[in-house]
TrEMBL record:
This is Serine carboxypeptidase 1. InterPro entries: AB_hydrolase_fold (IPR029058), Peptidase_S10 (IPR001563). GO terms for biological process: proteolysis. The keyword Nucleus does not apply. Residues 1-30 are annotated as: Disordered. Pfam families: Peptidase_S10. One of its GO terms (molecular function) is serine-type carboxypeptidase activity. The keyword Hydrolase applies. Belongs to the peptidase S10 family. It comes from the Eukaryota. The gene is Scpep1. Keywords: Carboxypeptidase, Glycoprotein, Hydrolase, Protease, Signal. Residues 1-28 have a biased composition (Polar residues).
Length: 441
């Protein structure tokens, strides 16, 4: 993966913690936090983790698993960095134990772990997410530029310490950055909001009256974005979700075939928009979009056996405790589109993969297709002319698992029977897609 950028920050490389991946005791109720440190250059099935001070009072946590393919050394396989959404969702927690890591939340082996075909780097970002933390409220990231800058500091530290992943010795960050995959990603918020009504209407979750209500609030969001009133657009986004939930009897924004749980429902939250306390509506939005990423079972796992295993987490830091502050701090950045960044990546020749779950609402496929059509990429017309191809997870089955369209360095995957969390809903297809994206299939 080729990644080269300039940083004017001096970083020191600390010695990361390291313990075996597998539970040698065979006790499923405990994690493998006993045993001596591994020599990561010589042993397989290993993992390392550490903190990086990315700014004053801001420390970011990362966790690396080395690939465990029985036929290949990790150096022959790609390194995949997984970043969770939210903002405030923890990749070391949710992405790791709920989606693609080697173990699930019951500490049972995951058959569809991506670790079979890639080393996995989970990073809790922005700072304050998961085990990452800040010491002062001023240290929370308030915009994408700060989030990106913090990540660059972390990556420079990581690749300086892990030269086994370096491939190109130029620039400040030395690695071979080959691509980015955008999974149900909030690239153009207004395109998502504008598509909610038509999508729900098409699947019989809105009637004409409900469609009119949702379309009206969506237009208000569009007007606010066009005027650059991003904080107002965020408030209207939250109001749009409340209107949808009332009209659909509580549809789950992460999978339209299910209903919202009581702790994420906004059915009776109109008072939050009327309150003079400006942050209350944000707290409600956070409850919907971050709370589901740190359920009770996962929180108990991360703040219990995992924290004990890792050993380096400060006593006063609890996994997920600062997630709401992470979310709220980004309120004026939520509704800003970043289509131009995708265009820049394409122009630079970086492989860009967009994949989306068929049943996702918060970032529905219709909205994703809308912003893709706004790309200024010169090859977009040729991409559009192509016919998509059906994909099957089982070559002996006639059941279609996904569709894909790819031209030069842009690919789009339509993942069937999946909501927002594609690897959790369709693990086999997600694994197949990862292998295709990394040119291993």
């Amino acid at each position: 993966m080729t990644f080269s950028t300039e940083l004017g920050t001096h970083l020191e490389c600390s010695t990361p913690s390291s313990l075996p991946l597998q539970n040698s005791s065979g006790n499923d109720s405990e994690l493998p936090f006993s045993g001596s440190a591994l020599n990561w250059r010589e042993q397989e099935g290993k993992e390392v983790w550490d903190y990086v001070t990315v700014r004053e009072d801001a420390r970011m946590f990362w966790w690396l698993y080395y690939a465990t393919n029985p036929c290949k050394n990790f150096s022959e396989l790609p390194l995949v960095m997984w970043l969770q959404g939210g903002p405030g969702g923890s990749s070391t927690g949710f992405g790791n134990f709920e989606e693609i890591g080697p173990l699930d939340t019951r500490l049972k082996p995951r058959n569809t772990t991506w670790l079979q075909w890639a080393s996995l780097l989970f990073v809790d970002n922005p700072v304050g997410t998961g085990f990452s933390y800040v010491n002062t409220t001023d240290a929370y990231a308030k915009d994408l530029d700060t989030v990106a800058s913090d990540m660059m500091v972390l990556l420079k530290s990581f690749f300086d310490c892990h030269k086994e992943f370096q491939a190109i010795q130029q620039g400040t960050i030395k690695c071979n950055f080959s691509g980015v995959a955008l999974g149900d990603s909030w690239i153009s918020p207004v395109d998502s909001v504008l598509s909610w009504g038509p999508y729900l209407y098409s699947v019989s979750l809105l009637d004409n009256k409900g469609l009119a209500e949702v379309s009206d609030i969506a237009e208000q969001v569009l007007n606010a974005v066009n005027k650059g009133f991003y904080k107002e657009a965020t408030q209207l986004w939250g109001k749009a979700e409340m209107i949808i939930e009332k009209n659909t009897d509580g549809v789950n924004f992460y999978n339209i075939l299910t209903k919202s749980t009581p702790d994420t429902s906004m059915e009776s939250s109109l008072e939050f928009f009327r309150s003079p306390l400006g942050d209350l509506f944000l707290v409600r939005l956070c409850q919907r979009h971050v709370r589901h990423l740190q359920g009770d079972a996962l929180s108990q796992l991360m703040n219990g056996p995992i924290k004990k295993k890792l050993k380096i987490i400060p006593d006063d830091v609890s996994w997920g405790a600062q997630s709401s502050s992470v979310f709220i701090s980004m309120e004026e950045d939520f509704m800003k589109p970043v289509i131009d960044i995708v265009d820049t990546l394409l122009e630079l020749g970086v492989n860009v993969t967009v994949y989306n779950g068929q049943l996702d609402l918060i970032v529905d496929t219709i909205g994703q297709e809308s912003w893709v059509q706004k790309l200024k990429w010169p090859q977009l017309s040729r991409f559009n002319q192509l016919k998509w191809k059906a994909l099957y997870t089982n070559p002996k089955s006639s059941e279609t698992s996904a569709f894909v369209k790819s031209y030069e360095n842009l690919a789009f995957y339509w993942i069937l029977k999946a909501g927002h969390m594609v690897p959790a809903d369709q693990g086999d297809m997600a694994l197949k897609m990862m292998r295709l994206v990394t040119q291993q299939e």
